[in-house]
Amino acid sequence: MLRSRAEGRKHEAVHSRHHHTPIGGSPVEAFANSVDLARHAERLGYQRIWFAEHHGVSASTASSTPEVLVARAAALTDRIRVGSGVVQLNHYSPFKVAETFAVLDAMSPGRIDLGIGRASSAPALDFALRRVRSAAPVDDYAEQVAEVRRDATPAKGVS
Question: Which of 91, 101, 122, 127 lies 20 to 30 Å from 75, alpha-carbon distance?
Fold first, then answer.
């Protein structure tokens, strides 16, 4: 989905929420379509594209690992900023998220955005993605965000 802030203004952002292929399409096509969208947005003058994270959806959706798609899109474009919108932090180690995006920034300096958030989906899916399964879920999102901010500072290249 392409959109600009206002008609006549420089295009600012693309947020690709669903990286789909046509019905019956393959994951290969979903990734190729997402990268094509990034290239097209760059040609149109957009400044950034973000890829969302979704789990438990069709195989024709390239969205369960936005960091992989970010790496591919950044490698195959030249100027557009590429990022996650968002990494679902409640499913990951904050340190691992910070490290992953620091590496992405090292590969494409100054072009990587890290959007973080949290999500709740179907109970079985949430359980499958839970970091710790032996205890009841804990709402430690604020602490997780603080950890990512500490470990992925702008001095380390991630914004």
Answer: 91
pLDDT in tens, 1-17: 333 333 344 556 665 55
Asked if residue 32 belongs to a domain, the reply is yes
Q: What's the whole-model pTM score?
A: 0.76
Residue 5 counted as domain residue: no
Distance CA 36, CA 28 (A): 12
Contacts 24+ apart (CB under 8 A), 64-73: 67/100, 67/101, 67/104, 69/19, 69/31, 69/34, 69/35, 70/104, 70/112, 71/104, 71/107, 72/31, 72/35, 73/34, 73/35, 73/38, 73/49
31 located within any domain:
yes
Number of domains in the chain: 1
Per-residue model confidence (pLDDT) at position 6: 36
For residue 86, the enclosing domain spans: 13-156
CATH number (domain holding residue 86): 3.20.20.30
